[in-house]
Design goal:
Radius of gyration: 19 Å
Protein name: MinD/ParA family protein
CATH architecture: 3-Layer(aba) Sandwich
Pfam family, one: ParA
Organism: Bacillus xiapuensis
Number of helices: 13
InterPro entries: FlhG, MinD_FleN, P-loop_NTPase, ParA/MinD_ATPase, YlxH/NBP35
Shape: globular
Keywords: ATP-binding, Nucleotide-binding
Structural class: alpha/beta
Oligomer: single chain
Bound molecules: adenosine-5'-triphosphate, magnesium ion
Strand order of the largest sheet: 3-4-2-5-1-6-7-8
């Protein structure tokens, strides 16, 4: 990178930071069952938010099968902990993918953070603060299945998008996530449901009603549905091309569904106070506190 370019980059980042008022919104994307479409959702949701002028950074916290970078066609050079061990600035470990999507490969165990001495932890927190000023949204792509870690992530984030397909096994596993988190939370965390791979809108509506009824009846959780994505062969084709479907097939059904999801997400957001949100810094602080107490 030449000097002029790095100066431009710096000024851009500086301006973004100066204009920022609210801390970034931390959104966890998860599911009960694996392979229901979390990573594809995260990537294309990020692109859609970005197209509406939002600054989005994807943080890959899927430790077992971190692979969103494959969907983006990039191999990460850094991981989040390089901020500490290589004294990198957090904005320098952001990888850029197609469509300008920004991504940080987590590749960390929470235990790694708990072992840090005070000085390093303070440095890490200061770097998170920088990321917080930089991004409007931080999307956390997680692994499937209920783990202690996942519960901590859900409790610490501003909201969680829970993805399921209409398959009874996926629905049961999604419900199990709600139930487990409910046991630990004093206040019910904010969940929004996305039905993926439905064969028809009728099937999607039916699936979301089943989930909503079960969660309001048994858990007293009011589960809002964020939207639906139909089964669409273009998704698989895009995965093979290692390019998000919103870029390869902007007019395919899945892309139209995704745009619809983001349109309904944005106005809905305006009604939610973000003052209590402490952004990604607050997220990690809460996760570490929970790790000590859960
Ligand atoms: N709407 C859709 N229509 C058709 N196929 C889809 C759709 N969504 C996802 N898929 C298929 O499901 C596969 C798995 O998707 P993805 O990798 O996003 O799931 P995941 O939940 O992140 O998986 P993991 O739990 O392993 O992280 C994709 O490679 C794609 O083939
Ligand atoms: Mg995934």
């Amino acid at each position: 990178m030449d000097q002029a370019q790095s100066l431009r980059e710096y000024m851009h980042r500086y301006n973004v930071q100066m204009e920022k008022r609210k801390p970034s919104r931390v959104v966890t994307i998860t599911s009960g069952k694996g392979g229901v479409g979390k990573s594809n959702f995260t990537l294309n949701f990020a692109l859609s938010l970005q197209s509406l002028g939002k600054k989005v950074v994807i943080l890959d916290l899927d430790l077992s099968t971190a692979n969103i970078n494959i969907l983006m066609g990039i191999s990460p050079r850094y991981r989040l902990l390089d901020v500490l061990f290589q004294r990198k600035n957090i904005l320098d470990v952001i990888e850029k993918g197609l469509g300008g999507i920004e991504y940080i490969y987590g590749g960390l165990e929470l235990e790694d953070l708990l072992r840090l001495d005070q000085r390093l932890l303070a440095y890490f927190v200061s770097q998170l603060e920088e990321l917080q000023n930089y991004a409007d949204f931080i999307l956390l792509d997680t692994g499937a299945g209920i783990s202690k870690e996942l519960v901590e992530f859900i409790l610490a984030s501003d909201e969680t998008i829970l993805i399921t397909t209409p398959e009874p096994t996926a629905i049961a596993d999604a419900y199990a996530v709600l139930k487990t988190v409910h046991q630990f939370a004093e206040q019910s965390p904010k969940f929004r449901l996305v039905i993926n791979r439905a064969q028809s809108y009728a099937e999607a509506v039916e699936t979301s009603k089943r989930m909503q009824n079960a969660s309001s009846h048994f858990l007293k959780i009011e589960l809002k549905t964020l939207g639906y994505l139909l089964e669409d062969s273009h998704v698989r084709k895009s995965v093979k091309l290692q390019t998000p479907f919103l870029i390869t097939f902007p007019n395919c059904t899945a892309s139209k569904n995704m745009k619809q999801i983001v349109y309904s997400y944005m106005p809905d957001l305006n009604g939610i106070p973000t003052a209590s949100s402490k952004g990604i810094r607050g997220f990690f602080e809460k996760v570490l506190l929970l790790r000590k107490s859960l």
